[in-house]
């Protein structure tokens, strides 16, 4: 059985004090069993958040990393540095990084390998743009992104990857994919993983949906067998709404 994951992507929101306020309000409100809850915050807040969540069921993730361990790469953060402060997860290849920071599939692959080599759990984002969707190229796009992200990984490594299917047109727009459409694409992704690696990896790999997920629509995604949780932007910024998402996922895990 795959443990559901609710990962909040705080993007470039929240100062250190605001991050701590969030945790203080969240305390005791989110279910601790049967679900992995992850908060992916800015690099600046990570050490404080890790200290504040020590001994709790909340895990902390970064939103990016460089694949090299060290070097002359101004402004970058290495996997070794994330290890040093006990970060557990890292988002890789988010569409905002692909669009605004020219992150390529090749870089996504290098970062994924580097994260795995440093015991970080990569949350690798894939998804089609509106233009690709309208040209009926959703499957082709996600298949290529998955193929390149997982290229060269062993089955054992690939099983540790979490994929997040985030249609770019659904991110921050309030217009989520329908559960039917998300489910269709995620089943297609599972089949692609099975063809590329092996059926067991496809059965064990967690695949999340992301794009305008909120407490009001999370159940429709979680009730689909192939959707293992969500990567959430806007609705993860509020502790009450994040707790509701986590609790919904814990409940969905109970029912399986
Ligand atoms: O990483 C999260 C996604 O970009 C989704 O953001 P959103 O929930 O605000 O649409």
Automatic annotation (TrEMBL):
GO terms for cellular component: cytosol. InterPro entries: Aldolase_TIM, TIM_sf, TrioseP_Isoase_bac/euk, Triosephosphate_isomerase, Triosephosphate_isomerase_AS. Homodimer. Pathway: Carbohydrate degradation; glycolysis; D-glyceraldehyde 3-phosphate from glycerone phosphate: step 1/1; Carbohydrate biosynthesis; gluconeogenesis. Transmembrane segments: none annotated. Belongs to the triosephosphate isomerase family. GO terms for biological process: gluconeogenesis; glyceraldehyde-3-phosphate biosynthetic process; glycerol catabolic process; glycolytic process. NCBIfam families: tim (TIGR00419). It comes from Marininema mesophilum. Its EC number is 5.3.1.1. GO terms for molecular function: triose-phosphate isomerase activity. The active site is at 94 (electrophile), 166 (proton acceptor). It comes from the Bacteria. Involved in the gluconeogenesis. Catalyzes stereospecifically the conversion of dihydroxyacetone phosphate (DHAP) to D-glyceraldehyde-3-phosphate (G3P). Pfam families: TIM (PF00121). Substrate binds at residues 9-11, 172, 212, 233-234. It catalyses: D-glyceraldehyde 3-phosphate = dihydroxyacetone phosphate. It is found in: Cytoplasm. This is Triosephosphate isomerase. Keywords: Cytoplasm, Gluconeogenesis, Glycolysis, Isomerase. PROSITE patterns: TIM_1 (PS00171), TIM_2 (PS51440).
